[in-house]
Amino acid sequence: MIKQDSLSSAERPYTTENAISGLGRSFLTLPALPFIPNDVDETNGSGDYAGVYDAYVTVPDPNCVANAGLLSPGLAGAGATCGFLYGPRFNIVNEEEKSQLYANLTHELSDTLSMTAELGWTHHEVLDNPQSPSYPNLTFPLIFPGTGGSPFDRPVQWYGRPLGAEAPSPLAPRDSEAIRASLQLDGELNNGWNWMGALTYSENDRVARQPDTIASRLNAAIAGNGGTSGNETFNLFDPSANSQELIDWMSHLTYTNRKTEMTVADFVVSGELFDMAAGPVGFAAGAQWRDESYAVKRDDIYTQTNDPVTGDLIPVDLIFLGGGTPVDVSRDSYALFAEANLPLTDTLEASVAVRYENLSSDSSVDPKLSLRWQATDKLVLRASASSAFREPSLVQLYNQGTSLQGLDDPNVAGNRASFVRVNARGNTNLQPETSTNINIGAVYDVTDNLTVRLDYWSFDYEDVITVENAQGKLDALPDGPDVIRDATGTLGGVNVEYINAETVDTDGIDLSIDWSGSTELGEIGLSLAATRFLSYEIPCTATLSAAQRGCTGTSGTQDVVGYFNYDNFARSMPETKVNVTANWSRNNHKVALMGFYTSSYETTRGGIPAGYSSSIDSWLTLDLQYAYSFEVGGTEAILTLGAKNLTDEDAPKLYDAANFSYDPKHHDPRGQIVYGRIKFAL
Questions:
Q1: For tag attachment on the chain, is the N or C end more exposed, with fewer CB atoms within 10 Å?
Q2: Torsion angle defined by CA atoms of residues 558, 564, 569 and 575, in that order, rounded to the nearest 10 degrees
Q3: If residue 509 lies in a helix (H) or strand (E), which one and from where to where?
Q4: Which string of DSSP letters, residue by residue, matches 380-434?
Q5: pLDDT digits over 90-124, tens only?
Q6: Which residues lie closer than 8 Å to 213 by C-beta, 6 or more apart?
């Protein structure tokens, strides 16, 4: 069992210093309302909110700072909002427990038949995972005098969340269990051919709990009809007036269970077909059958149902999370494939392969041709060309989920960052993704101890399966049908779905250098592995950042290598990554020093504050590891001691609106990590 302590982002404050929400506890005064007779623009407050306010003044919690909140400019210019720095509440690393079991059994059934059985089990539990005190109420409701503890004599609009900076963080635990079992038979035929048959079953069962507030109970409590007694009031203006029992009554910990299962049967025969002048022709052929399923179950409150009259989906009774419908789908497919290795000459060989896939929604035939030429004793040249086919996963077809993202609202001037919900949904109209792949390379043995490998690769994708980027969608259509806003235009969220992008064309170079040598002091090795993207071209969009990358409209392509890509479906993409390893071994001792380098890249996000720039610095870290092998009572054991990020380098800073201020895809903010472990081979 592996136990892991949590690391709060508060211990790495630079990672969340921009994670600020303006939706803490604030109220917007309103002009004369047409449904109130003889209404006026002026609003009077009493108690801590005492004062006379014109229309469109944002009135914050008078105890905002005392309640650990942050004051910022008002929603409509006048007044101030009470928000809070929520980032330090989240963990960079959660408290976790992980248990694993693995068993392997091999048995010779006869001289020509053997059996291999494998069983693996993993249980992974996230024990804490703290969240914001509560989500904001994105309906931004009107609060009338005499309700919700209002100190005002006219209706005001509430911009906030039931529990703000003064409240503790609820937990969102996770639990997952994975099982994989496989049985394989390997046999020999009388004619010298071999066969292999295997049956593999895998299952992944994941449970996620996420806190939210029950909307109907919150509304009832604001109206004075809350709690188990039905007569308690939830005070939006003074958090100290609310009992824990009332808070618990309104709160809900959602339950989502996602389960995937797959059964795969494989059968392969291989042997030599005939002889050519340069040698025998190797051949393999086989078949594969796959059956997979995907099921999603949620608790009753978190499950969407259909309106019996209109058939439309009814929103769940929560103020923020979107919930979803039950999912229980399955499909099966089969494939046939064949491959031949042809020795054309003593120095030139070719491999030809073809694979036929028959899927529930489509079918495909994909060929592959590879050539290998031993140009000299030291130099090998190689090349391959192939096509590939990938159908959308069941998750991409049917999934529904809500995440939180920091987005820049183009309709707001100045600091436009908002932390809002992004509702992602599957798309049953997705088409399979196809690609054409080319690789050209060389292997050069400079000496018996030194080998250099250089490869150029190119992938041209059609109908790439990806999820829409929320920021890009918001930038392109700030008031589009999938952008959620209230009556005043305040951003509440963005709906995105899985789509087929038109094309993606990418190419690059891989370089590896390996040297090894023997000395009186032991065995020494040096290795280098580097990857450089030459291009990653995606369709142009109408966003400002796309224009910065050469687009003048929505036609053509843009090269996104060297950019953070916050507003499109591509991931952040530094041009170059390099890993270098130096190792030494002698008898039972091994030492390795590893260096990891990521080149600098840029963000095109606007409104970058002081202390940040558009450039994301390059990053170099070092790892050191020592291993000692020994025996205990005839059992082999390995003791390992090491340090990751030996020099304790901070992750490069990045301005990404209200999100983390580093790039988790390429950088690790944990700092120096010292570890030790001992492993026994039972």
A1: C
A2: 60
A3: strand 491-519
A4: EEEEEEEEEEEPPPHHHHH-EEEEEEEEE-TTS-SS-EEEEEEEEE--TTPPPEE
A5: 999 999 999 999 999 999 999 999 999 999 999 99
A6: 134, 135, 137, 162, 250, 251, 252, 318, 319, 320
- Residue 349: count of CB within 10 angstroms of its CB: 20
Q: Which amino acid, residue 155?
A: P
Instruction: Report, as an integer, the average pLDDT of 418-438.
Output: 88
Q: What is the pLDDT of residue 71?
A: 92
3-state DSSP assignment of residue 130? strand
Report the DSSP beta bridge partners of residue 305: 314
Number of other CB atoms surrounding residue 136 within 10 Å: 26
CA distance 382 to 456: 10
Residues 402, 268: Cα–Cα separation, whole Å: 43
Distance (Å) of CA 49 to CA 151, 217, 222, 588: 7, 26, 18, 74
- C-alpha to C-alpha distance for 91 and 402, rounded to whole angstroms: 19
Reduce the DSSP state of residue 676 to 3 states and report it: strand
Pairing of strands 433-445, 43-45: unpaired
Residues forming a β-bridge with 93: 7
pTM of the model: 0.87
CA angle 442, 443, 447 (to 5 degrees): 145
Q: Give the per-residue pLDDT at 416.
A: 57
pLDDT over 80 at 233, yes or no:
yes
| DSSP category for residue 235 | -
Cβ-contact 539, 530 below 8 angstroms? no
Q: Is 526 exposed, middle or buried (0-12, 13-18, 19+ CB in 10 A)?
A: middle
Q: What are 119-132's pLDDT values in tens digits?
A: 999 999 999 999 99
